[in-house]
Amino acid sequence: MSAAPCGRGLRRRRFWLGALWLGALWLAGAWLATARAAPVAVRDDRGVELRLTAPPRRIVTMLPSLTETVWVLGAGARLVGVDRYSNWPAAVAQLPHLGGLDDAQIEAIAALRPDVILASTSSRAMDRLQALGFAVVRLKSETHADVRRTLAVVAALLGTPERGQQVWAGIERQLDAAAARVPPALRGQSVYFEIGGGPYAAGTSSFIGQTLARLGLVNIVPAALGPFPKLNPEFVVRARPDLIIGLRRDMSTLAERPGWGALAAVRERRLCGFDSDDYDMLVRSGPRLGEAAVLLADCLGRLAAPAAR
Q: What is the pTM of this model?
């Protein structure tokens, strides 16, 4: 006779425990929603402050390095459009591609209703989008310091400021590991890093030049010429670099350039040529900076291997 009341009491206790558990879950969910919706404020590389009532859910990136930055920071799902050249990771191929620095597809971008647009400081097309009322964050991408600052700004914008520091710490570890792998015989060697088949080069003050310096190499292009100067081909002949780095397809024709056949780096094949996918990583000032340094160190190791045998 006592089993029924006991059963009803157990059911009541289970009901209230379940209700308390659901209430706790609801409160936790509400707290998380509030945290995610917390206002964010960032200052871009023009010194302009942007304030949003919540981290952006719809993001357009107009530079490959910015696309990669958003992805590596864990917000790839928020991307709704990217620039013409963004191709990493492979998943971004499914997104609308919206032009480049100076020919951005204004109407197509506006139709995507982005909460924020991430772009280069040199993109003049962004002025029109700002005039239409869109939030635009403009960022520089010339040096290691620029990469670190971009990670911090974008991470803060996404509502995950600690993530930017974590990613940069990983890049630093990769840079250190790459430097440790460079053969001692190649340290102090002079290097010419060619941009896109020339006549442009990565100068000492560029993020590429800074990576080369971390690897113990000496850039033939002085900082005074700027980060990515246009060079007279004779400049390289006179500088006589010990090593040449560039696109693989261009390495096979270097000897055909006037005077270049006499360069020891060309004659002795002290060349690091990269396929387009790897080369893209090398010339983008984004979160794969450390991975690019490891790629360079691996090539330098292969160059030193024949001499060691």
A: 0.86
